Amino acid sequence: MSRSIPILMYHHVASRPAGVARLGGLYVTPCQFTHQMSSLRLAGFQGLSVSAAMPYLRGERRRGRVVVITFDDGFVDNLENGLPILRRFGFGATCFAVSPGVGQCREWCDGPLMDPNQLRAWRSAGMEVGAHSRTHPYLTGCSEAELRYEVEGSRADLEQILGEPVTQFAYPYGDCDARVADAVRTAGYQGAVTTRSARVRPGEDPFLLPRVNVNGRNPLPVVLYKIFLSSVSGVPGRGSFRPLSPSQ
Ligand SMILES: [Zn+2]
Question: Residue 101 C-alpha to ligand 1 middle, in angstroms?
Fold first, then answer.
């Protein structure tokens, strides 16, 4: 049987601003991020974007040890702090961006988001841009028209900015059900990630990919334990259609 593959979920690569408590775990400092990437490298792992990892996630390719690196929302600190570290280790990654200038910054958004030029800079550096809706809603509560606006619209927005196909999607808050997953599939994406906590068993549904959240409050050994050893691996998705954490 194929080895399970961790898709890591990050939000910020930055020091936690003073006064941020509720979403504090979403901040991984550049120092922590460096140690995490370095540990993966030393363990013989290659960090990949979701699209680059698709042959592994589908179970079509098995050679080598891969870990998938993702960032949600599209914060500027991903570009300013995360990118130099990724490049240092020769890793790829996917940033799931909310359409620039469309969504209002609400409770999910606690920092500046990349503008079109910054998204292009991220892409030019060899990283992937995926879509994360236009306004970051709970998609299961959307009408059909709203769902199309968010899922197809965000893809069109980013494709116009980047001038190339955008093929990966991340459900805001991890909120999805069969109807939402179907809308993402129908919109022409090739895969989508959730916030269900598990490693991917190669061959499982590419539109319901689980991830491993990297919490900035956890010390390195705990992070590595969650990535490689925790028993969440391979547990079928009990409750996989519902968000596990409202903060993501
Ligand atoms: Zn988000």
Answer: 15
- Domain range 7-228, its CATH number among 3.90.226.10, 3.30.1020.10, 3.20.20.370, 3.30.230.70: 3.20.20.370
Average pLDDT over residues 146-153: 97
Residue boundaries of the structural domains of the chain: 7-228
CA R_g for the chain = 16
Ligand 1 ion: Cβ-proximal residues, 5 Å cutoff:
72-73, 172
Ligand 1 centroid – CA 64 distance (Å): 30
pLDDT for 77-118, tens place per residue? 999 999 999 999 999 999 999 998 765 566 677 788 999 999
C-alpha 88 – ligand 1 centre gap (Å): 26
Residue of 40, 38, 34 lying closest to 64 (CA atoms): 40
Q: Compute the distance from residue 109 Cα to the ligand 1 centre, in Å.
A: 8
How far, in Å, is the centroid of ligand 1 from the Cα of 114?
14
Strands 45-48 and 65-73: parallel
Tokens 């010390």, located at residue: 219
Among 156, 177, 160, 170, residue whose Cα is nearest residue 241: 177
